[in-house]
Amino acid sequence: MAREAGVSQTTVSLVLGGNKQGIVIQEATRVRVLEAARSLGYVPDPAARSLAAARNSLLGVFSFTATFPTDERHSYYPLLAGVEQEAAAQGYDLVLFTGSSAHGPAATTPEALDRVRLADGCLFLGRHIPARELRRLVQDGYPAVHIGRRDELEGLAWVGADYVSASADVVRHLAEAGHRRIVLVREDDDAPASTDRERGFLLGLERAGLPGGPETVARTAEPAAEITAERVRAWRAAGVTAFVAEETDTGGAWRALFGAVGAAGLEAPRDLSLALLGAPPADLGAEPVPTGFDVPRTELGATAVRLLVSVMAGEEPEQGASGAVPGPAVPGPLVPCAFRAGATAGPPPETAPETAPETAPEAAPGAAPDGG
C-alpha cells in the first residue's frame, strides 16, 4: 500500500490509525493513502488495532452457572438484557463466559479466570464465586464488577439490589396487617443475597416491635424435605400467621413453602399470609402473584455496566449506602427494589391460635440456633 500511494509505511500507519499522534500530514498525502487503501480492498484488522490501542471495545460477562438463560422467565434474563442495552449505548460489544468447565465457581488453578482478559473489563454474577481467583484478578488491576454484594473481596467493585430495605418493608406490611408471629424460610448457605434478606427481615421485626429470636428464621439445606405440611401445621399451632421465603436461583425455599401450605390444606391469604423476597420460579408463574418485592434486574444490569466503564476509566466508584442498616459505605450503588402488593397476604385469620409473642414454637424443628 505504501508503494501504491508513494509514501512511507509509517505514513500509511499514521493515516489508517487516525493520526492520534497529531503529526502534520498534508491533506493530499492523506487522500492518496486512503485512495490506495480503497483500491487495494484494505480492511482494518480489529485484532491488530485492539493490540495497538490495548483495548478491544469488549465487555465480558462471566456467569458462575453452567449456561446463560434462554427462557425469558429466568431471573437472569432481564439482568442480561439490561447489560446488553447499556453496553450498546456505551459503544461496547459483549463476550459471554460461563462456569461450565473447570473454570467455574470451584476453580482452583492460578489461570482459572484468565480467559476473561480477552475483554477490557468483566462483570461477574452468581451466588457463589471462586474468591481467591477473583481476588487475584482485582489485585492485578483488571477492571471487574460483581453484580450483587461482595464486600468480602477488598477492592472489588460491585452493584447490588437493596435487599435489606426491601425485606424490611415486606415485614412492615405484614405487621401493619396485624401479624405478630412471622417466620422466614431461607436456604442454608452464606450467599450475600440470602444474608441481606435475613438482615432486612430481622430489622423489620425489630422496627415493628415483634420477636426476632432464633425461632423466626428457618434455615434449610433441603427445602423440599424439611419444609413439610406437618411443619407448617406446627408453626400455625404455635401462633405463626405469616411466612416469608427468600428467592434463590433454584426457587427451592418458595416452592417448598408454597407446596407445604397446600399439602396442609391451607390457603393464602384465607388461612395464613405468604410473602416472597423476590420473584417466584418460572414453573409457579401461573399461581397467584405473591406479596413481596420485585428486583429491578434490568436496571441492575445497566448500572453494573456503567460502573464497570467508570472502573475501566480509572474513576473511583460512587459510594452508596442502603439507608436501612447503619454501617460503612459500599463500593458501588444499591438499586432499590419496588414493593409488590401481590395476592397472598392479608390480615391474620380470626381463628388464629393465641400464643404469647415471646414463646418459641417448640413444634418448629430445624430453626437456626444462632438466629440464622
From TrEMBL:
<keyword id="KW-0804">Transcription</keyword>
<feature type="region of interest" description="Disordered">
    <location>
        <begin position="335"/>
        <end position="372"/>
    </location>
</feature>
<feature type="compositionally biased region" description="Low complexity">
    <location>
        <begin position="335"/>
        <end position="345"/>
    </location>
</feature>
<feature type="domain" description="HTH lacI-type">
    <location>
        <begin position="1"/>
        <end position="53"/>
    </location>
</feature>
<dbReference type="GO" id="GO:0003700">
    <property type="term" value="F:DNA-binding transcription factor activity"/>
</dbReference>
<keyword id="KW-0678">Repressor</keyword>
<keyword id="KW-0805">Transcription regulation</keyword>
<dbReference type="InterPro" id="IPR010982">
    <property type="entry name" value="Lambda_DNA-bd_dom_sf"/>
</dbReference>
<dbReference type="InterPro" id="IPR046335">
    <property type="entry name" value="LacI/GalR-like_sensor"/>
</dbReference>
<keyword id="KW-0238">DNA-binding</keyword>
<dbReference type="GO" id="GO:0000976">
    <property type="term" value="F:transcription cis-regulatory region binding"/>
</dbReference>
<feature type="compositionally biased region" description="Low complexity">
    <location>
        <begin position="352"/>
        <end position="372"/>
    </location>
</feature>
<dbReference type="Pfam" id="PF00356">
    <property type="entry name" value="LacI"/>
</dbReference>
<protein>
    <submittedName>
        <fullName>LacI family transcriptional regulator</fullName>
    </submittedName>
</protein>
<dbReference type="InterPro" id="IPR000843">
    <property type="entry name" value="HTH_LacI"/>
</dbReference>
<dbReference type="Pfam" id="PF13377">
    <property type="entry name" value="Peripla_BP_3"/>
</dbReference>
<dbReference type="InterPro" id="IPR028082">
    <property type="entry name" value="Peripla_BP_I"/>
</dbReference>
